[in-house]
Every structure is written in C-alpha cells, then in structure tokens.
Design brief:
159 residues; three-stranded antiparallel β-sheet
C-alpha cells in the first residue's frame, strides 16, 4: 500500500521522458504532501497509482493540463511586468484595464521605432544595464522589439 492510497489530489509526469511522476496527496492530518516516483510499471507504487485510476492516459492529460495552467500563469506574470515597465517608462498613462491592455499590445507587438528607441534608452538607464557587460548592452541596442528587449532584461536579471 502506497503512502498516497485513497488520498490523491493529482498526479503528473515531471520530465520530458515521462520517467518520473509527482503525486500530490493529503495525509491523515489534511496536509498536502508530494511523493515522487519512477514511472516503472513493475514498481508497487506505480501499481497502486494505476489501481486508483491513474493510468498513463490520465497521467498525460493531467500533465498537459498542469503545463497549460503554468503557462497561463507565466504569461500573466510576464504581461503584468511588461505593462508596469511600459507605464514606468511613461509610454502609456495608467488607464482603465481595456485601453491599457490595448496600448500595451500596440506598443509591445507593433515595433514602433520611436517607442522602441525610448524603451532602449529607458532600459540602458536601469540598474540591470548599469552593471551589464558591453555585449549585453550591444544586444539591447540591436533588439528589434520591446519583447526581445524584455527577454534580454529577464535573462540578465536571472543570472
């Protein structure tokens, strides 16, 4: 009997090879715990997982749904950060949510040369680029869109 028997919340693959599984379950006190295991059909934990209805198809579906949810959350985070940066740069004023979103979309995706130039000037004055290498600054100057510039800022920031 596995530690997660009759207590599974969700299960999903954790790597591209589908060789590891993460099982979230509640223990007897109500705490949510995680159990990691190999996707080995001969292992007793895997057999217990299957016995509770978590066959390969259900695991793939749960994994895909988890990835979609994570992707949506990441997109919201990136879009919110980009909108704040654009507002800080003075490219748009704080407006109602619909018009701000439309302005954000126009600025980020339409590659307006004047706005792109202002973005690059703004970015080069941030603390991130004050300590950046010459190559990183050059990459920003060569970027062809605000989105590309934001990606570069994210890369430098996370190093």
């Amino acid at each position: 009997m596995a530690v997660f028997t009759d207590a599974i919340i969700t299960a999903e693959y954790t790597n591209a090879e589908y060789s590891f599984i993460k099982v979230k379950y509640k223990d007897q006190t109500g705490r949510i715990l995680v159990h990691h295991m190999h996707a080995d059909p001969d292992h007793c934990d895997f057999k217990d997982l299957e016995a509770e209805g978590w066959d390969t198809e259900k695991l793939v579906e749960a994994t895909a749904e988890s990835k979609r949810t994570q992707s949506a959350a990441w997109n919201i985070e990136v879009n919110t950060a980009a909108k704040v940066m654009i507002e800080e740069m003075g490219l748009i004023e704080r407006q109602d949510e619909i018009s701000a979103a439309q302005a954000y979309h126009h600025i980020v995706f339409n590659e307006d040369k004047d706005i792109l130039f202002k973005f690059k000037l703004w970015a080069l004055e941030t603390d991130i680029f004050k300590t950046a290498t010459k190559t990183q600054k050059s990459s920003l100057r060569k970027s062809k869109s605000i989105l590309e510039g934001l990606a570069l800022i994210n890369t430098i920031k996370n190093k």
